[in-house]
Amino acid sequence: MNYPIDVLPQAIVFDMDGTLVDSERLQLQCFMETTGKYGFDAREELYLQCIGQRVLSHELF
To answer: Residue 20: CB partners within 8 Å, gap ≥ 6?
Structure first.
């Protein structure tokens, strides 16, 4: 017997605030590595000031 396979998802879950996955530590690590790669001496305090900000409303450097 062949049954049709429903390939379309019934739902998509977006986790924008860390409720399901705590990605903040990974984001901090990526931030530190990337800013260091481009010669910036970014500290965790700068990262904490930047999270939750819109790109247009917050100048990093």
So the answer is: 13
pTM, rounded to two decimals: 0.54
Distances (CA, A) of 38 to 16, 28, 35, 49, 60: 27, 16, 5, 19, 13
Q: Note the pLDDT tens digit of each residue in 16-54.
A: 777 788 888 888 999 999 999 999 888 888 888 877 766
Q: What torsion do the CA atoms of 45, 53, 33, 25 make, to the nearest 10 degrees?
A: 70
| H or E segment to which residue 28 belongs | helix 24-37
Hey, where are the domains in the chain?
A: 24-57
